[in-house]
Write a structure and sequence with these properties.
The structure holds 2 protein chains of 2 kinds. Chain A is mostly beta strands. Chain A is 0% helix and 20% strand. Helices cover 70% and strands 3% of the residues of chain B. Chain B has a two-stranded antiparallel ribbon with strand order 1-3. Classes of the chains: A mainly beta, B mainly alpha. Chain B: Keywords: Endoplasmic reticulum, ER-Golgi transport, Membrane, Protein transport, Receptor, Transmembrane, Transmembrane helix, Transport.
Chain lengths: 10, 213
């Protein structure tokens, strides 16, 4: 579990 | 990649193609907010700076380049080629009211305090409100060409589809969540609700898009 940005999203 | 993500991205792609088609076939950018398009260029350029630092996939890279290039091309069409068809006097939303607060929010909320990450955060916040000059213009004129409403519907669908994508990812990627993107995404989708209501009750029933006086 965690919070981070999803680098694959546009 | 899941089905919601893919359909969302394709819908985003479609929205830009619809907009280009509208401008080219009617040889006019009437009804399109230059300010919204300029905000989208800002969004894409500040968000996709990571093409120089992170390689995700060919799909990811190609889409990023396409979004930057196509939106810049739309600005060119509006400012140069079809300039006489663009009426700045109805495109009057004050974008500084969007840029300022988004910059502030990005300084307050980000995942790491680096130039790239703060700009990414800024782009997420700015994207959530970038459609406002366009919706404001629509509200002012009270009507829109059908093709313009298809453009807006595809753009709204893209955002709406990202929501089930996040829910799906939350359950399949062991509770992974991106609170900045999710919050901004929910706000952005909410901004389309009024538009969607008129789109579904009028345009899809074959009527013209007209707002009640």
């Amino acid at each position: 579990t965690g919070t981070e940005r999803s680098k694959d999203e546009l | 990649m899941n089905i919601f993500r893919l359909l969302g991205d394709l819908s985003h792609l479609a929205s830009i193609l619809i907009l280009l088609h509208k401008i080219q076939t009617t040889r006019s950018c009437r009804g399109i907010s230059f300010k919204t398009q300029a905000l989208y260029v800002t969004v894409f350029v500040t968000r996709y700076l990571d093409i120089f630092t992170d390689w995700v996939s060919l799909y990811n890279f190609t889409m990023k380049i396409f979004f930057i290039a196509s939106t810049c091309y739309i600005l060119y069409l509006m400012k140069m080629k079809y300039r006489p068809t663009h009426d700045p006097s109805i495109d009057t939303f004050r974008v500084e009211y969007l840029l300022g607060p988004c910059a502030l929010l990005a300084l307050l909320f980000h995942y790491r305090f680096t130039v790239l990450e703060v700009l990414w955060s800024f782009s997420i916040f700015l994207e959530s409100v970038a459609i406002l000059p366009q919706l404001f213009m629509l509200q002012r004129t009270g009507e829109a060409e059908t093709i313009t409403t298809h453009y807006l519907a595809a753009l709204g669908a893209y955002r709406a589809l990202y929501i089930p994508n996040w829910i799906y990812r939350y359950f399949t990627e062991s509770g992974q969540i991106d609170p900045i993107a999710v919050t901004a995404g929910l706000v952005q989708t909410a901004l389309y609700l009024d538009f969607f209501y008129v789109y579904f009750t009028k345009v899809l029933q074959g009527q013209k898009f007209e707002l009640p006086a």
